[in-house]
TrEMBL record:
Family annotation (Pfam families): DUF2344 (PF10105)
Domain DUF2344, chain residue ranges per copy: 3-196
Protein name: Radical SAM protein
Length: 241
């Protein structure tokens, strides 16, 4: 049995697609591409597909990960081409490597997010970010299926800075208004998970910053934090083995 690790994107209108629907779409594409999938045992066998840290509904991503197990040797380059033909626009396979051991989940403990805030002056955003980073605790309320829950966002925020605006188009292709603040932030995976919406709510708490239109969030990378706060590519060890 061979295990392959894939990095893929979730772009455009697919940001509003649930992870369950993304998973179903991906598994249909694997069948269409003729991938010799390995299946579980039991009365209801299912393909051995393992998802790692899926992005929440409503956000885009350049760095989603999935592991698939196959019963025959598969060429990663050929598989990438076949899957790209079978997948809908917005889901693009960026990279495929053969797993060389280890646990992929253990190689990911943080995400880098790009959050575009239309109608917010970059200087105003920078002041709010400064207040967030200087605070010891920033509690926000989150509505869950079990009711309202209070989450301290600050421990999860590793870094945050305002990116200079370089064009009139956002990362996901949507037009940006004038003005527009762009926040780049690295968020550590903690329990409970701190999402982009929680970071935005934290800015509201510390600086009363409320964008006039919904913000657009894109996950740019996932990985393990190094000693300087940078993310290490989780597939790097497989390439080097």
């Amino acid at each position: 049995m061979q295990k392959l690790r894939l990095r893929y994107t979730k772009r455009g209108r697919l940001r509003f697609t649930s992870h369950r629907d993304i998973a179903r779409t991906f598994e249909r594409a694997l069948r269409r591409a003729g991938v010799p999938m390995a299946y579980s045992q039991g009365f209801s066998p299912h393909p051995k597909v393992s998802w790692v840290g899926a992005a929440p509904t409503g956000v885009a991503s350049e760095a989603e990960y999935v592991e698939v197990s196959v019963v025959e040797q598969v060429d990663p380059v050929a598989l990438k081409l076949a899957l790209d033909d079978a997948l809908p626009p917005g889901i693009d396979v960026v990279d495929i490597v053969q797993a060389r051991g280890g646990n992929l989940t253990e190689r990911i403990d943080a995400s880098e997010w790009r959050i575009e805030l239309d109608g917010v002056e970059p200087a105003e955003l920078a002041k709010a970010v400064e207040l967030l980073l200087s605070a010891e605790r920033v509690e926000v309320e989150r509505l869950t299926k079990n009711g309202v829950k209070t989450v301290d966002v600050r421990p999860a925020v590793v870094s945050a800075q305002v990116e200079p605006r370089s064009s009139d188009a956002g990362h996901d292709g949507a037009a940006l208004s004038q003005p527009c603040g762009i926040l780049m932030t690295v968020v550590r995976q903690v329990t409970p998970t701190v999402r982009p919406d929680d970071v935005l709510n934290a800015l509201r708490v510390v600086a009363d910053l409320v964008p006039p239109v919904p913000a657009r969030a894109t996950r740019m990378a996932q990985g393990r934090l190094d000693g300087e706060g940078w993310l290490v590519d989780p597939l790097q060890q497989d390439r080097e083995s």
